[in-house]
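ok here's the first one, seq then struct tokens
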Amino acid sequence: MNKWLINFCLCIMALSLFSCSKEYDDRIRNLQTQVDLNAVYASLRGKYYGSWWINDEQVSDGSSCVRCLSDGYSGENVIPFEPTRDRELPCKAIAERLFPDMDVANLPYNSVQSRFNAYSPLPVGYSDNILYLTLQPKEGDAYVPYWFQIFKDNTNDHIIAIALDIVPYESIIMLDKDSQSLTLKWLVKQVEIYEYNKGQEELKSVRELNPEMKLTFIGSRKND
């Protein structure tokens, strides 16, 4: 699927998501009765390798990995992101943009890590072998957080924990059965920053992003 077609599909999905809640609920119920979601998930289960973009800038070389699992987490369909250094999300590239005065590249080895993140996506559409999903926030939450942390010294005494607050229902996941591809389109509205020194919280802040940060992943499944 070319980039133009992906963007077109996302525009169609975005427009549909702004319809009234009753129509939205009806679509979900109809989708779940018409499509065997468990079978779709099972057919798309596996590891996807590809690249990340921050806004329109490519920031990874094609070796980033995202896993899609259909079971193993309390029986729910989840899309987990493995905390394997910087492969699941370009944490260093994001940190460099969030903290332009910090020399992120010269922090201690493996100093930017993702904490385990797993989400139960909400199906919102299915057509032409493409399953469209969005992220579900916890009840009462406005955002879906993606967590990672920065270690500022070799002793791990000084840590900055960061939550990227992803806007649900404006962030789309697409699983394409024909091309065996996974596309993530995340919109980050704000970041939560927690700074700790020797385990004691010293600073907490919430920073709205203007403009918002757009994170995109496009990858293909590999059986390895």
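and now the second one, same deal
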Amino acid sequence: MTITITLPTAENRQAVFERFADHDAVRDAVTGAEHATPAIGFNRLYDYAMGIGDDTASVEQALNQNAGLRADLRALLVKVSLTHLPEVAAAGTGDLETRQTDQCSIRIEPSRAEPDQVYLIIELSDLSAAMPGTLFTCTADDKTDRLELPEARDGVIQLLLDRGAPILASLRDHSAEVFLR
């Protein structure tokens, strides 16, 4: 058995080179797409804000990398939150331990039993209103944190957190906005 290979002539050599370049470009694009992180669409951002689904890790990673997505989340939270606590006018220079609106108050109190822990206490004014399930913070330096909340008892939600929990730093920040959703 003999294999015959026809080599390109001088006239069609450039066309062969261009064809190989096109195939190479397609291969690079497909390989790049296989390793690309998919964009976070509005439906995934909405699900994250509403606490639907279990795709939080990839959304949080995208939020950390994309300022536009963080701005979209903040705008969405303004619309869908049960309560919005805007940034606090800096009356003092220390950390903020209490935030309050007509609908709720949020306090950070040290634990007497464990010095490395604090209580986060959320008291809701209207016991007949829907109770929040998630707390979000959005700081002026564009950092977003999310905390799932336990069920309220008589309008009070109480959590025990480590003193170094990232969300506590955001809650204590005068320039941070807080959303209860």
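notes on #2: Residues 81-180 form one domain. The first strand starts at residue 83 and ends at 85.
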